[in-house]
Structures
1.
Amino acid sequence: MRHSDVKYIAHRWPLIEISKSRHDCAVWLKEHALEVPPRSSCLFCPYHDSLEWRDIRARGGLDWERAVEADRLIRNARLPGQLFLHPSRAPLEAVDLRTPEDMGQMRLWDEECTGICGV
């Protein structure tokens, strides 16, 4: 959410205004047997994490193809060095998008930090 840069335009967020979160909307959709859509973002957003890239790839089709093509197109757009959409700095179609759990890493405490270790 952000406010308009134009003084005579006011953006509205009806669901926010009635205190509905994305989670609340997902629950409502599931309760009504409707599909929960992915969050909205630019297809080639460099802030996607591996999970989001996995979802785009799993859905397949034109979205994944366009993301891979965008990744290729930016490769040598700025010198020195190459640009990549994925933080691993590898071509999107070559990135290992498995989760640590998929690779055998056990989850400890469901990643809940209570500060006990003192770090």
2.
Amino acid sequence: MVNLYVGITDYDWFQFLSAQRGVDEVNFWQPGGRTNFKAIRPGELFLFKLHSPRNFIVGGGVFAHADILPVSIAWEAFGFGNGAVTLAEMRRRIAFYRKEPDNPHQDYPIGCRILTQPFFFPEHQWIPIPESWSPHIQQGRTYDTSEADGRHLWEMVMDREAQQPTAPIAVPRYGEPTLIRPRLGQGAFRVSVTDVYQRRCAVTGEKTLPILDAAHIRPFGEGGEHDISNGLLLRTDIHRLFDLGYVTVSSDGKFEVGRRLKEDFENGRHYYAMQGHNLLMPSNPEQRPKREVLEWHQSNRFLG
């Protein structure tokens, strides 16, 4: 069974993002940050419906991840993908929907639905909402594609995707509804890695979120992927040393510090004290670093 979700958004958010070029991920945010989104699974479609009276589905994306994040982190991860030109504008919108003045001393927690491969329909392709849609719905609703309305929405979306010169979603036009593997962008990579490492540095256990980075083990520009198994959550200073090759991670998950750190800087006692420590790894083995990317870092980046 494959579901899809229809979420309600404002026209300004849609209009801004649909005018951008090369958008590979978006953050469909909610101003409240009390409960996390669990309506659909990664790989299912999340569709955009405009506020009434524009009762149309106007685009969507592949659901990748949901989280509750401080607005500053959401902006840093997704930037324009939040549907705003600046962080200040995004904060104003959040305050508006919260029905309260913008408090500059508050880093609002917001609900984030992270979508990859977003698509935006021109107005002549907008899809009318199903008759089963209730005007009392506040945020959105889930549709089962094994039922009539859900299957109809799936087919309408696939029909419009097939008409695009470069369709973001490669699914057979007349095939059965199926999960779609999300292609993570930089922002989705950062948030996903942060979560699977339980928001703590894999080496030190540090939990101060603003100084934690989702590090690529093999850089994206050198053949690495935006994939959780190519990531580590590291404190900013350790991330910098990792990228420069002064530290690495052994194939069995131990922190290693090279001799070059002391030779080049006559220092590093704090880091040498962590030599040989076991990293704090994700509980799911499939989300842990792949041996081949760790070996790539040891052979191609580590200074020894």
3.
Amino acid sequence: MSKWFSDHLNTLIAFTISGLTLFSGLLGWQMGNISGNAAGAYSLAQRAELNAQKVISTNTMNAYENHRAFLEYKNYFDQYKLVALQLEEVQKADPVDEALVTQLSSQRDELQLLYLASLKLFPNRFINRAGEYQLEEQIGQMIASDQRKFDMNPDPHLKEGQRYEAQTQNLQIALIILAASLFCFAIVSTVQNLKPALMLVMTVLGYITAFAGLAMGIIYWN
């Protein structure tokens, strides 16, 4: 191999090494950014999952509190109807027991105040025509309402994180390929008295891996 060719080849390889080193550094910087994006996406997914758990548990607890208030209302109302019926029977009796009428009237009025007060402690729109409290419907509506206020779906964030993670892995492969290329060029430029055939093989291999690493790095940059 002539000295002129060898000198020009070494110069070309030196420029190539410089360019590959610079691109590898930029690739590593971009890979760090993408890794940060992946971590951010997974963090958002975790937050969405926590939001979902919090919304479900809070609304379920509130709905059961409303149901308990409904049961209290129903108990007071049933007692009110019973006392009112007893009072009506006593008033129809002959002779009328005024003391008992007064006692039952007082109980009826007290129970009426209690069931009316209990009626304000829960949303009565969830009582159906049969007088039953639709607990599951209330929980579903409360959760649906909170879904418009909070991010409760982790799936899009998980998919985004997985996409960033795959991109990072591909950039790592590109860096490994570029490292192999730099190794080939380092052998050619540093090893003295390298056989021409081996120098040619290492140079060709170096440029093949360099182009492969560059192409892969560019493809998965964004």
4.
Amino acid sequence: MKTRFRWWIVCCLFALVGDGWGAGPALQLPSHRKLTLANGLTLLLVEQHQVPLLAIHVVVRAGSVSDPTGKEGLAALTVELLQRGTQHRTAEQIASELDFVGGTLAVEAELERVSLAGEFFKQDADTALDLLSELLQKPSFPATEVEKLIQQRVDTLKQDKEDARAILPRYFYGALFGHHPYGRPPTGDERSLVSIHRDDVVAFHQRHYGPETTIIAVAGDFAAAEMARALTERFGGWVPAGRTGAIQPPEPTPWVGKKLVLVNKPDSTQTYFAIGNVGIARTHPDRIGVELVNLVFGGRFTTMLNEALRVRSGLTYGAGSRFERHRAAGPFFLWSYTQNVNTTRAIDLALAVLKQLHTDGISDSQLRSARNYLKGQFPLCLETADQLAALLAEWEFYGLDQREVTELFARIDAFTTADARRIIARYFPADDLVFVLIGNAATIGAAVKKYASPVERREIDQPGFQ
């Protein structure tokens, strides 16, 4: 489930290393300008004149939740294919033009959105905007490129299943969310990918790409009025007719009781496991408190989980926990891996740490460390034009604003250990748990039945993740 855009946000908002600064003044963002064109396109502009660069982040509300049933992976294919040819440029010409000006352009697909992120020199602003306009509005989706990319994705998926640690979150999403849109793999699976054809890609673009579903954030060395005119010239005529707009996923239902899915990987010498339930949405009012508690429990290196499973017991090289947050509630899960012979010992210890969190809460010193950590890391993520453009686009997508920065330190300082107990009781599951294990079923299958029965077993080479 990892993507460049999402993990950039995670690293910026709740960084993964270091301890950071203490109390300080409230943060401030550079002023920015927001415009909505007549066709519904949202523009976000922030001037940064320190270096002659231009950063562009485009977010389109056309993620994998919009995939038709049986054609999972279509959204991800569509955004990738934007760079594979337009009405006026071939894939080779697009790549050559980017190389000539020294520009970069990356695309990502997530559950609820796709994104394009580029950086260019100031003097190449016209080239950048012309190219971006053509990619979004006039892709040609050459049949040969569609077929080539689908085959590449199928081959990549086979390789991914050799890496149990990397593929574990996809199985966890499938087990936890089931037929909810969040349970479907954003990049598709072995069956859905081969069912996709060029006509599907064309129809998806026509239905979901339009000014009313798109956010363009630009930060860098430019005059806002001039950039607004340049963008309006290129995108003001983009017609929204015939598109369905963004899809709002329903709130997922938390799992009640216990469930265990064992994915058999016969050649695995280790067991990889994830344990959790439904968490919170990106805009949840308790998001800061949840993150502070998780920083103590498993959200960085110096945590309760890592101390117990790695430092004291030596059962693993890593253990952690995270909340993945979307427009609706995403998952919470703790994770780790260990040798087959230590599978139940490691899982038992992880569950004991979770129980300890509920019993003891967190201490004043632990909370103080988490506060300093979060306050120390966040300012480092507001320094470059690329960071600012990405942050503004993300806020606009979720309906947030600059109070995410200006009120952040105050919200952190106001959080107490008493608040933490409420957060733990409400958002860190204790009894209702979904277990997903990838490992050698012949070795560990009998032992793990104690966590949930019956065990749902599948083979790693079975198509899909559900």
